[in-house]
Amino acid sequence: MKAINFYKLVTLLFAAVVITSCVQDDEFDVPQIEIQSVDIPQDRIVEISSLRALLEQEQTTNGNAVLTFEADDDPSNDRFTVGYVISNDAQGNFFEELLLQNAPSNPSGGVKVLIDSSPLFASYEFGRKVFVRLDGLTVGLDSGVLTLGIRDGNGVEKIADGAKEDFLLRDDEVEEITPMPITFSEFTEEKTNLYVRLNNVQFNRAQALGDDRLTFAGEPEDEFDGERILESCDSGTSTVFSTSTFADFKGVLLPQGSGTIDGILTLNFFGEQFNIVVNDISTINLDGERCDPEEVDCGLASTTGSNVLFSDFFETQNEGTPISGNGWTNYIEAGTQTWESYTSGGTNASLGISANIGSFMSGDASSIGWLVTPQINFDNQDGETLNFMTSNSFADGSTLEVLFSSDWDGVPENIPSANWSILPAAFIVGDDDFFGDWFESGNVDLSCISGSGYIAWKYVGSGEEDFDGTYELDEIEIESN
């Protein structure tokens, strides 16, 4: 019995060797599938840009959150929408979704199609024209953006993998996609799901420079997505650049220069914040010079003098009113938020009355507020230093900087056009610092400055969740020997 089993085993092994030797690696024939042109009569096409209008009409007229296209028994009556693929999941930054826009250039509408299948890029490559059969599908909002899928109550779920070819028809046309130039201020919900180009942008220097330079999404605190601050060199405003923690390039360090980024305009998971997402990092071209302000860096001084050139602890301010008097210039460059006097107890207690600015629930697309000291002549004495205290109530992605200018003319409206240099030696509270504490700036040395000039605190934020932080400022003293 044992001998019979042994001979069976030898026979099976011999057969396996023979079969394996007949087919070498990479010699399998890959079937070439010819993709045919899709011919759908124009009267059965529903433009992508019309899907949003139809959904809004359904919401207004019938109060429904989604709109379902009921299937007809006669397939010749099926309705379709058509678009060009702008997503690519090859690098893992998209998953089980296909993004289509209605034209290869100058698009006016885009839609996300949820599909329970991955990867999709091999069949639905970038630029491929695709027809989507609407009958049996539902249009709604998923994470705030226009989406097609299968109805699930008042939401939209993924099309099953086995059913995707019932709904998606590939055309033989593959077009070059031309990114649509756009600025942060031009972001709208109607422009989500479009392939866009951002010009003259850079990552925030606190994230892209120095010893603590960040990766796209490989930091310990990154969960699901890594969110980085992308700045406009033209307007000084910011938006969120988002990368999945499943992306192949999540561990790549952020580029340090400025330039262009081609990507997709979308919203975050909660549908509250505009995000830019790329298919891969080949469309990030940040090789130019950064547009950060120049620096005036005298370092930190070991001591401070006893001659007070300027000081304000804000105790004479009226609570809840804009900071005024004492030579201050309180200027709103963008938005509605201004520096105000503020007092609070509890965990995040103020230092008596403090100066406060924040954009939480402001509704501002951009919030930029300046608080500028009176002019100081640095030639009249020696050993000038600056000291102040800062705290925050969750800074989020909003920023506070302390700056110096020698060429501002004193006219508030001219503040943005003056040359302002950063005082990098000054410590300003960060988002990671405990919100209940106050932090000293250090003895910021100003003795290398000559002539006259102004010191300013500049706040940049917005009413959007990731940039709506609050800062407090107090105990400002400029002294000399």
From TrEMBL:
Origin superkingdom: Bacteria
Cytoplasm listed as a keyword: no
PROSITE patterns in alphabetical order: PROKAR_LIPOPROTEIN (PS51257)
Keywords, comma-separated and alphabetical: Signal
InterPro entries cross-referenced by the UniProt entry: DUF5689
Domain DUF5689: 74-281
Signal listed as a keyword: yes
Coiled coil region boundaries: none
Signal sequence coordinates: 1-23
Protein name: DUF5689 domain-containing protein
Lineage: Bacteria, Pseudomonadati, Bacteroidota, Flavobacteriia, Flavobacteriales
